[in-house]
Design a protein that fits this description.
By secondary structure, the protein is α/β, with parallel strands linked by helices. The protein has two domains: about 15-75 and about 395-430, Urease, subunit C, domain 1; about 80-390, Metal-dependent hydrolases (TIM Barrel, Alpha-Beta Barrel). About 30% of the residues lie in helices and about 20% in strands. It is built from 15 helices and 16 strands. It has helices spanning about 5-15, 120-125, 160-165, 200-205, 210-230, 230-235, 245-260, 270-285, 300-305, 330-335, 355-365, 370-375, 380-385, 430-440, 445-450; strands spanning about 25-35, 40-50, 50-55, 65-70, 75, 80-85, 130-135, 170-175, 190-200, 265, 285-290, 310, 340-345, 400-405, 415-420, 425. Strands 1, 2, 3, 4, 5, 14, 15 and 16 form an eight-stranded mixed β-sheet that branches. An eight-stranded mixed β-sheet has the order 6-7-8-9-10-11-12-13. Helix 4 crosses helix 5, helix 5 crosses helix 7 (about 245-260) and helix 11 (about 355-365) packs antiparallel against helix 12. The longest helix is centred in the middle third of the chain and has 20 residues, at about 210-230. The chain starts with a helix and ends with a helix.
Length: about 450
């Protein structure tokens, strides 16, 4: 069988229309319901017109399709943060990776939402891990995991290209339930939800080699953005001094400078975290810490600043001098201090986005309360990115993103028996499963394999 035929078959299988339509009323009854903020025993979740209509302990409404969840767990769909879902197929194959930008004249304006692929094989795999939404972020030299190459991202190379290197681009929110057969290919929920920038060692490398250089250059960049915002007409008639960034980048950074768009800052070392918090205070910038492996050392300061953290609680090895104090109790310590945390998957949350629930389970085994771990996969990511109440929880009015699990979703052996995205039930299929079923057959094998 030709590879092209196999791929075409996999795409066709994944594009099968979901068995439940968004306008259908579905009642999931008898399960242990984790709403994201509470637990309801023997609960009933009603989904209608793509959203949660009700949640409680009553019976199913008349005419609803009933799903028996007795002995099972019903949970909100998980939200993958710091993810590459839909933006990267094979990260080391340049033509399939839409998360990298090596332009020397466009950085902050880079918008990953234009490169999203609803046919990506990564989406069904993540769905089978309970992921129904994702925050897709551009890659940069400080990105978490994956197989990125620094010479293929902006800001590095011979001579050091400083101007575009401070910013990797803008993140987007997607859903993982495109109804391809029905023509619903758009997975974009909201573009340009945050700006992304490396700090710490990676940011210092972009800025010339020293952390102090990056902070000064960052402040100067924001000063120029504000100068441009006040003098657009002068800029148009070439009556303004030369600025470091392109017009597109300047425009993209205005919301950051105004404090209306959050800046996802990749940072690990405790001292760097404190300097980022100081920078945010001085410049009036809204920041989200990404990584923060040494965050537990300065948890009280992070909490006092009201800054959320995206983290992988299994990052516990001192891989470099930025992570000398990394430990498995990081998530528990930050949560105990009052920091809003969101738990990430592994290696860029693309092919291994589904492992976020395993990471949450590990965090629980190292002191994070169970309900806080569920929140870190559901309501917290929505809250961090300005989508509170819209998804990530089972509550009236929220998107109908619901997963029925065979058991505790933080247990690796638990599997979904039903997955709804926006009220549409999704097929429990993925390309790896299709390949498994195709090639575990002993006879008859395809002709090419019999020769």
């Amino acid at each position: 069988m030709r590879l092209s035929h196999l791929i075409a078959g996999a795409v066709a299988a994944l594009a099968v229309s979901a068995p439940a339509l968004a306008q259908e009323t579905v009642a999931i009854v008898g399960g242990r319901v984790l709403t994201g903020t509470s637990v309801i025993e023997n609960g009933t979740v009603v989904i209608r017109d793509g959203r949660i209509a009700s949640v409680g302990t009553g019976g199913a409404p008349a005419g609803a399709r009933v799903i028996d969840a007795a002995g099972k767990v019903v949970a909100p769909g998980f939200v993958a943060v710091d993810s590459g879902l839909g933006g990267s197929e094979v990260s080391s194959v340049r033509g399939t990776n839409e998360l990298r930008n090596a332009s020397n004249s466009l950085s902050a304006a880079f918008d990953v939402s234009y490169g999203l692929d609803p046919w990506s094989f990564t989406l069904p795999v993540a769905r089978l891990g309970g992921v129904t939404r994702a925050v897709v972020v551009p890659q940069h030299p400080g990105s978490s995991g994956g197989h990125y190459h620094e010479d293929e991202t902006a800001g590095v190379g011979d001579g050091g290209l400083h101007e575009p290197g401070l910013f990797a681009g803008q993140a987007a929110i997607i859903h993982l339930g495109p109804n391809l057969q029905a023509g619903g290919q758009d997975i974009l929920v909201k573009p340009r939800v945050a700006m992304v920038a490396p700090f710490g060692e990676a940011g210092a490398g972009v800025a010339g080699g020293a952390r102090g250089a990056e902070f000064v250059l960052f402040k100067e960049t924001l000063a120029e953005v504000r100068l441009y915002a006040r003098n657009r007409s002068a800029y148009e008639r070439a009556g303004l001094r030369d600025l470091m960034l392109s017009r597109a980048d300047l425009e993209a950074l205005i919301p950051v400078a105004e404090g209306s768009m959050p800046l996802i800052v990749t940072v690990s070392r405790a001292s760097d975290i404190l300097q980022v918090l100081r920078l945010a205070r001085e410049e009036g910038v809204k920041v989200i810490l990404d990584g923060a492996e040494e965050g537990w050392l300065v948890a009280d300061q992070i909490a006092a600043a009201g800054v959320p953290v995206l983290l992988n609680p299994t990052d516990n090895l001192p891989n470099d001098f930025e992570m000398r104090a990394a430990r498995m109790e990081n998530a528990a310590a930050l949560n105990a201090a009052g920091v809003v945390i969101a738990i990430k998957g592994n290696e860029g949350s693309t092919h291994r986005a589904r492992e976020a629930r395993y990471n949450a389970g590990n965090a629980v085994s190292h002191g994070l309360p169970y309900d806080a771990a569920i929140a870190a996969l559901t309501v917290n990511p929505a809250r961090i990115f300005g989508m509170a109440g819209q998804f990530g929880q089972i509550a009236p009015g929220a998107a109908g993103d619901v997963v029925v699990w065979s058991g505790d979703p933080l247990e690796p052996l638990s599997q979904p028996s039903a997955v709804f995205v926006g009220g549409v039930e999704q097929p429990l299929e993925s390309r790896p499963l299709l390949l498994r079923d195709r090639y575990r057959q002993q006879t008859p094998m395809p002709p090419a394999y019999r020769n």
